[in-house]
């Protein structure tokens, strides 16, 4: 459907797309209006649908934002309410929430288009919780069923969380905004998941920065949302449930019973971290969660962590994991290297440098 202004036909939904690009680049209506020489009132009217955008105005917006013209003709698939979930700090600003929501919506749009066109994509086949309420035992059981569904050993370490998700049909995407905190993490955000359910694709995103053990827990946490909350949309403690799932998925209960059968020290926990790719803090919480470490001992261990400066900088390095499925989908369709990114940018409506951060190939393109 198209409307007209100044004799040029443009899609009527371009107001929504102008708002979308503003959110993605982090600028206000006033800033955008000033950069293209129009009034803020005009931008407001276009975004609200009260006026249509001219083709010339869209060309100007594309030029100043660095987004291809095709972005303004791309329509994201409808996502059911609450199918998009964040793991973030409570202090994050609403403006940043909206910005991340838009980034994930555009990421999902591109993934959806790629798997639709490919035709060979098989969506995740995961156990899905459907009961109104879940007990701790239910979540433990679902975590073990998920291991089985992903072809993982029932009691060993998950060697590569990212690859396990991708083999099971979940597209894993590194996400980035311009701002990072003192630990190198994107401000306020850890992970995000989006899955309306089969036959649509599932996307799990993580924000770059931080450590490998934190990345792995974040991915397991988001996998928990897919399993626990795809059918159960209104859950009071969905973050708590996803944390419980992640712990059970990464450290099965039977093995945890072995670990904590005797008095454990921080040195013991550091050795477990090296073997399982799970942080010392998460291991302590897993023991406490199962009633294997009492509250007093839990407090004591965390005080020892703080005294050694390990709350933010634990010993034992866990390597970051690199996703591959999204890059493979792009390469299959558009080819490798910078030329592949350029072809993808025009077809998918996202700049080559944005695609390069979402789906890093052998060589990430510059903004030029």
From TrEMBL:
Coiled coil: none annotated. Residues 18-72 form the HTH cro/C1-type domain. InterPro entries: Cro/C1-type_HTH, IrrE_HExxH, Lambda_DNA-bd_dom_sf, Rad_response_metalloprotease. CDD domains: HTH_XRE (cd00093). Belongs to the short-chain fatty acyl-CoA assimilation regulator (ScfR) family. PANTHER family: ANTITOXIN HIGA1, BLL7220 PROTEIN. This is Helix-turn-helix domain-containing protein. It comes from Aciditerrimonas ferrireducens.
């Amino acid at each position: 459907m198209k409307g007209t202004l100044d004799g040029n036909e443009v899609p009527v939904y371009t107001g929504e797309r102008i708002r979308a690009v503003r959110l993605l680049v982090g600028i206000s209506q006033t800033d955008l209006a000033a950069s293209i020489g129009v009034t803020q009132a005009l931008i407001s009217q276009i975004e609200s649908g009260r006026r249509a955008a001219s083709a010339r105005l869209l060309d100007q917006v594309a030029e100043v934002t660095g987004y291809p013209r095709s972005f303004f003709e791309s329509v994201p698939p409808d996502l059911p309410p609450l199918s998009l979930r964040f793991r973030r700090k409570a202090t994050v600003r609403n403006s940043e929430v909206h910005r991340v929501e838009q980034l994930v919506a555009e990421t999902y749009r591109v993934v959806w288009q790629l798997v639709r066109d490919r035709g060979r994509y098989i969506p995740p086949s995961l156990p899905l919780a459907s009961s109104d309420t879940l007990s701790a035992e239910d979540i433990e059981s679902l975590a073990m069923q998920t291991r089985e569904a992903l072809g993982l050993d029932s009691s060993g370490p998950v060697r590569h969380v990212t690859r396990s998700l991708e083999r099971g049909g979940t597209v894993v995407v590194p996400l980035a905004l311009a701002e990072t905190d003192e630990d190198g993490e994107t401000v306020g955000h850890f992970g995000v998941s989006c899955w309306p359910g089969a036959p649509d694709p599932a996307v799990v995103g993580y924000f770059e920065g931080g450590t490998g053990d934190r990345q792995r827990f974040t991915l397991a946490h988001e996998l928990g949302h897919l399993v626990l909350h795809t059918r159960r949309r209104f859950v009071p403690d969905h973050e708590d449930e996803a944390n419980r799932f992640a712990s059970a998925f990464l450290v099965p209960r039977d093995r945890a019973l072995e670990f904590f059968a005797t008095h454990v020290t921080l040195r013991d926990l550091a050795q477990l971290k090296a073997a399982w790719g799970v942080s010392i803090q998460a291991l302590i919480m897993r023991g406490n969660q199962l009633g294997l470490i009492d509250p007093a001992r839990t407090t004591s261990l965390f005080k020892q962590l703080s005294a050694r400066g390990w709350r933010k900088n634990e010993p034992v390095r866990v390597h970051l994991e690199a996703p591959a499925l999204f890059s493979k989908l792009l390469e299959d369709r558009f080819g490798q290297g910078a030329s592949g990114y350029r072809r993808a940018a025009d077809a998918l409506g996202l700049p080559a440098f944005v695609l390069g951060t979402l789906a890093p190939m052998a060589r990430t393109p510059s903004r030029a």
